[in-house]
Amino acid sequence: MENFLVSLNAVGPLFCFLVLGGFLKKRGMIDAQLIRRMNRITHYVFLPALLFKNIIDCDLSQSMRGDLVLIAAVSSTLSCLLAVGIACAVQKENPRRAALAQGMFRNNYVSFGIAIATSVYGPEAAGIVSMLIACIVPLNNIYAVTELTVFRHERPDFKKLLREIGTNPFVLAAAAGFAFSLLRIELPKMLYSTLGSISGMGVPMSMLMLGASFSFSDAGEYKKDIVVGVLTKLILLPLVFVPVYVMMGIRREALLVLLIALCTPPAASSHVMAGQMGADSKLAGHLIVFGSAASMATIFTWLFVLKNMALL
C-alpha cells in the first residue's frame, strides 16, 4: 500500500492541474489562443529553465557513478530506438509517429524518482536519483528533440536538421547546465531564486494547458496508439531491460533507480514539446493522462514483484 501511495502522491498533483485547466477552460478563462501562447512560453522558457536547474542542482563530482550512468544512457538509447521502431510499425503518419515514439521512451523521472527511491530506501538513495536526473533527463530531451525534428521533415536536410537540434532550447539548457555544473559556476542567490521560481512553473503550466486542451472524446480516434504506447512504456520496456540488469548483478538501490527510469509515465513536458515541434499534441496528451493513471498500478506491481524476489 505504501508503494501505491507514493505513486499516487507523484501523480495526484499532475491530475489536479489537469482538472483545474479543464475547469478554467469551461469557465471561459482559458481559450485556444492563450493555450498556444502559454505552450510556447512553457516550451521556450519554463521547461528549459527546469532542465537547467535540475542539472546544476546535482553535484556531479560528488555523486557520479559512471557504471550506472553508462547503463542508464545505453538503456535510454535502446529504448528510444525501440520506441521509434514500434511507432513506425504502428503508424503511417509522421506527426503521430513522433508523438507515439516520444511517449514511449520519455519518462517522468523528476516527479517520481526521488519520491519512490526515498520511500523504499530512505534519504540515502536521493543522491543516486539526482545523479541520474542530471544525466537521463537531458539525454532523453535531446533524443526527443532529434526524433521530433526528423519526423517533422519528409526529406530532411541534414544541415538544417543539425541546426534545429543545436538551437533547440532544451539542448541549449542541457549544455549550459552541464557547463555550469562541471565548471562549478554558482549563480548569485538572487538569480538562483529567480531561476527556481521560473522553473517551478514548468510542470504545473504544462499540465494546466494540457487540461484546458484535453478531451476524452478524442480518445477513440487514438485507441490503438494509446494502448500500444502505454503498454510499451509501463510494461514492455521494464520486461526487456530489468532481466538484463538482474543478470548483470544489479540489485537494490541501483536496480530501483534504473527501474524508475523505465516504468514511469511520459513526462508532462512531452505534450508541450510535441505541439511546438509539429507532432500530434493530442496523442501526446492522451499518453500522459492514460499513462499516468495506469502507472499507479504498474509501478506498485513492479515494486511488489521485485521485492518478493529479493531483488530490491
Features:
312 residues; mainly alpha; Na+/H+ antiporter like fold; 15 helices
Distance between the termini: 16 Å
The ordered H/E elements are HHHHHHHHHHHHHHH
Helix content range:
over 70%
> Which topology does CATH recognise?
Na+/H+ antiporter like fold
Low-confidence runs? none
Structural class: mainly alpha
The number of distinct structural domains comes to 1
CATH architecture: Up-down Bundle
The average pLDDT is 88
| Shape estimate | globular
Largest sheet: none
Number of strands: 0
Strand content: under 5%
Radius of gyration: 19 Å
CATH class group: Mainly Alpha
- Number of helical stretches of at least 4 residues: 15
Describe this structure as you would to a colleague.
This protein is an all-alpha fold and 312 residues long. The chain has one domain: Na+/H+ antiporter like fold (Up-down Bundle). Helices cover 80% and strands 0% of the residues. It contains 15 helices and no strands. It has helices spanning 2-26, 32-56, 60-63, 66-90, 94-105, 109-121, 126-152, 158-166, 169-182, 189-199, 202-213, 223-247, 252-263, 269-276, 281-308. Helix 5 packs parallel to helix 12. The two termini are 16 Å apart.
Per-chain topology:
Blueprint (H helix, E strand, L loop, with lengths): L1 H25 L5 H25 L3 H4 L2 H25 L3 H12 L3 H13 L4 H27 L5 H9 L2 H14 L6 H11 L2 H12 L9 H25 L4 H12 L5 H8 L4 H28 L4
